[in-house]
Write a structure and sequence with these properties.
Distance between the termini: 45 Å
Radius of gyration: 22 Å
Strand content: 15-25%
CATH class of the largest domain: Alpha Beta
Structural class: alpha/beta
Oligomer: single chain
Amino acid sequence: MRLRAPLPGWTAKADVVVIGSGVAGLTTALQIRAHNLSVLLVTKSFIDAGSTKWAQGGIAAALGPGDSPDQHEKDTLVAGAGLCDLPAVKVLVSEGPEAVRKLIARGAVFDTSETGEIALTREGGHLRNRILHAGGDATGAEVSRALLAAVSNDPGIEVIEHALVLDALKTKAGRVCGVTIHVIGEGTRDGVGQVLARAVVLATGGLGQVYSQTTNPSVSTGDGVALALRAGADVADVEFIQFHPTVLYMGEGSRGQQPLISEAVRGEGAFLVNDRGERFMRGVHPLADLAPRDIVAKEISRQMQLTGSHHVWLDARSIKDFSERFPTINASCKEIGINPVTDLIPVAPASHYASGGVRTDLNGHSSVPGLYAVGETACTGAHGANRLASNSLLEGLVFGARIAEDIAANLPEYEDPAPQDSFDFLLSPSIRGELQRAMSKGASVVRSKESLQETLTTLAKLKNASTIFANLDAWETTNLYLLATAIVRSALERTESRGSHWREDFPETSSEWTKRIHQSLSKNGDWKSATEEVFNDLSIAR
């Protein structure tokens, strides 16, 4: 399968092509360059426009006194609700501290305490202060700045901005040997072209634009995951969409990217209340307002249903120097007339992070030779059913480095792509709004067989809206359609509630579902599903 698009009008070549310029893509590119291999870095907008720069909370790593990778591992396993791959978690937490040190060596500057040590804070699900932050609530921006500076100083990395990746190119034997991309007018090349490479790394970030409200930027349309599906790769855990519990409520009818109110605000003492002024998280979880995100999001949704309100409230009035500690959040609140020093902040859950994605091993291999995935695009198994706060930036650093080492050790010679004999398709961009509304209504924080089947029926109807007019909006919409279908199919199949997947009709967690669901597409576009047992040892966790 492939997207309907014009034939490539130009060709570029590199040892490795990396798609995406967030922490995962930039780290991978820089690590590959350490082996003197050429890199072509493709990004859909400006190079600094991805999700990384919006990350507020920070990076989790066992760097503080009394902390250890083992303790970080336990917290990650608890948050993952029984679906974490233990080997992946061990890699994440044990290689994390060194990955952070390497980031600091590349120029990243984190906030420090009065004694000059790196300041560490807590977020939901962590029993230790292990979150590094920069600029108060601008950690992602600092990480992005440091990595971009390193990339700009490396003549072996060519960057193409304003470029949407379309599809994978394959050899006769089925190995991925490049990609087709479309470069919008501002880019260095115009129109559709092909990039030939000895390996392809997908680091396109999240898919939050599947929903009406999200913390993700407009570029987060899951292009890498959709490409992998069309290339025949397995995706896994896609039903586990993490909804951040505290997103600034912008008013009824708001759409697209919404401002995030970082978990770190609750880590500094803020708490949630309902319309009656009740602290409703106290009786829900031992960690109360610092419970894992899925638990907080579910309880907020329940409170909204009980009261008929569009939001709950976050009380941050006790935090001293709020504007200095959280300048970005303070500015977002002020824009809608809220002063966090004196006012309660209206918040509601919104789509935030995809714990699933392209299924990979510990070195980033997908099920298709030559195709790697990293960061939010990938499903390493480290997050399980619910990502622990601030493990996302860490995952990009750790697994980006591992992919680079694997590529350097196993890079094949160039091979020419085979003629494209797969069928193409394209959906009209006019269906995008209806698709997003259907997903927000039926496949959001709370789900049921009835709501999911209704969503699937809507998606089936939208599939008839085909078009021959190839453009950016149509390509993105088609990608969103594939991802929405995969999410709903997996959510229907998983007849239990676990982590960030909550079925009203199956409210309990079932031991029969200690396994992940794989989805894939056949050559003629039929969906296939399989399950994979998850082997872990949660007896070491609390």
